[in-house]
Amino acid sequence: MNKKKKLLSYALNFALVLVLFLVVNVLMAAGIINRYYGGLIMQVCISVVLAVSLNLVTGLLGQLVLGHAGFMSLGAYAAALFTIHSGMATSGAGGVLTIIVATLVGGLVAAFFSFLIGVPALRLKGDYLAIITLGFGEIIRVVMLNLEITGGARGLAGIPVLTNVNTSMIVAALTIFIIWAYMLSRHGRAVLAVREDEIAAEASGINTFRTKIVAFVIAAFFAGVAGSLYAHQIGVLSPTKFDFNYSIEILVMVVLGGMGSITGSTIAAVILTLLPELLRSVADYRMLAYALILILMMLFRPGGLLGRSELSIAGLGRFLRRKLFGRKAAAAGVPMTAGEELEVEAQTVQEPAIDAILTAEVKEKDKPEAQPENAGEGKED
Question: Whole-prediction pTM value?
Answer without folding.
Answer: 0.80
